[in-house]
Design brief:
Blueprint (H helix, E strand, L loop, with lengths): L1 E15 L8 E5 L2 E7 L4 E9 H9 L2 H13 L6 H17 L13 E4 L5 E9 L4 E2 L2 E2 L6 E2 L6 H22 L7 H28 L5 H16 L1 H11 L2
Helix pairs in contact: 3-6, 4-5
């Protein structure tokens, strides 16, 4: 079943100004998150989740205006609150005193130089999950089995996890001389991946909802939560390990 969202994603391949380009960037805007995923030393992939109307406006822009809109989305402080910024700065300073080893220099997002005009596209977003991943001699993986909001690249991570898990069970069946299309081991794949994917989908949907609100108490709590997670090395490593499965 797929639940369509009232959002679309504006995508494209971007050439960045001078940068090492070894960091994925995501910023949460009131209309939805905008993200850059490194593809090479100078090129990153854009995924900008926003309203259908805004996505259409972005698609109709000329290349220069489109690039300006992306840079503004990453660098503009238009939607910032002085109170939230001050409270966040104070909390970050307190954390650096309590956990100095966990603090790191703040990085700034890159600037976009140009966009490949042939790469620009708009896609509808939705949340969906297949009730069954397998049938006799059939196994669903990736987007054929589940759809999530493009948050932190978890959709592709879940797909990679499906491939790894299915390969493991098929290899075990082949090693033991079993029929690769049998449900006996395909169901093991389904059970393992559904447990993980449903948990991840719930977490992604919760984060998406949390970052869609402008209510000051929630904005402050999520700001403090991210700052605390960033300096809590062990917690951050556990989150990364779960997200990469």
């Amino acid at each position: 079943q797929i639940r369509e969202r009232k959002q679309h994603s504006s995508c494209g391949s971007l050439t960045l100004q001078a940068t090492d380009n070894n960091v994925a960037w995501q910023r949460f805007l009131p209309s939805g998150p905008i993200a850059l995923l490194p593809l090479s030393d100078t090129v990153s992939s854009l995924v900008w989740s926003t309203s259908h109307e805004h996505a259409s406006q972005l698609q109709d822009m000329d290349e220069e205006s489109f690039v300006d809109s992306i840079n503004s989305a990453f660098w503009s402080n238009t939607d910032h609150s002085d109170f939230i910024d001050t409270a966040g700065s104070m909390f970050r300073s307190a954390l650096s005193l309590l956990m100095p080893s966990g603090s790191a220099a703040r990085q700034l997002p890159p600037s976009v130089a140009k966009v490949d005009p042939k790469s620009r596209a708009v896609f509808p977003l939705g949340l969906g999950h297949a009730t069954e991943y397998v049938q006799h001699r059939v196994a669903l993986i990736g987007d054929a089995a589940h759809r999530v909001h493009p948050l932190a690249g978890q959709g592709v991570n879940m797909g990679f996890g499906d491939i790894e898990c299915l390969t493991h069970h098929l290899s075990a069946a082949a090693f033991n001389g079993k029929d690769l299309g049998s449900l006996n081991h395909l169901l093991k794949y389904e059970q393992e991946r559904q447990r993980h994917n449903l948990s991840m989908m719930a977490a992604v949907d919760l984060l998406k909802r949390l970052y869609s609100t402008r209510a000051a108490p929630f904005v402050l709590l999520r700001t403090w939560g991210l700052q605390a997670t960033n300096v809590a090395t062990s917690a951050k490593e556990q989150i990364m390990a779960f997200a990469s499965k």
